């Protein structure tokens, strides 16, 4: 697969042409690993992968559902209920990593997101990790958090990235 654009870029949506091996489109966030993200041995610290999921999710909102950011400033909360990551290859400082986020599901107030981490340094792509997040949509009320339906703008923005 060919690497698209020059780093950093974000918000690239894969369509029919240039599709990743999976058969559904992805929101793409590209990241260059820094020294601060590595341990003493020089490998990326495992928790950074989870942080990158959050960054990818935020860039998706900025690009595809900016109105949701306004709701977050008020009383909407996108609460991470579950997160996981399986690691397949080590990453090091200055590696370029492409996170490809896809919608796994929307159920009631919950959203499931799949993440593929592709090391794209050197012209060959290698699957470095695979992750998942389940997010709950909540509103802050005087008596605590309450589950609410996925905001329409967010649901609409996620539709192009769902499994077909």
Automatic annotation (TrEMBL):
InterPro entries: HotDog_dom_sf. CDD domains: 4HBT (cd00586). Pfam families: 4HBT_2. This is Acyl-CoA thioesterase. It comes from Roseibium litorale.
């Amino acid at each position: 697969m060919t690497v698209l654009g020059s780093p950093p870029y974000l918000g690239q949506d894969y369509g029919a042409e240039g599709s990743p091996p999976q058969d559904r489109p992805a929101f793409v966030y590209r990241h260059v690993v820094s020294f601060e993200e590595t341990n003493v041995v020089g490998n990326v610290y495992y928790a950074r992968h989870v942080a990158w999921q959050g960054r990818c999710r935020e860039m998706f909102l900025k690009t595809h559902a900016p109105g949701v950011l306004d709701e977050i400033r008020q009383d909407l909360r996108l609460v991470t209920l579950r997160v996981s990551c399986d690691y397949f290859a080590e990453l090091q400082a200055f590696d370029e990593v492409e996170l490809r986020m896809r919608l796994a599901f929307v159920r009631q107030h919950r959203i499931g997101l799949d993440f593929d981490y592709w090391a794209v340094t050197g012209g060959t792509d290698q699957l470095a990790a695979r992750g998942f997040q389940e997010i709950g949509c909540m509103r802050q009320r005087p008596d605590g958090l309450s589950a609410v339906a996925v905001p329409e703008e967010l649901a609409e923005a996620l539709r192009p990235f769902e499994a077909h």
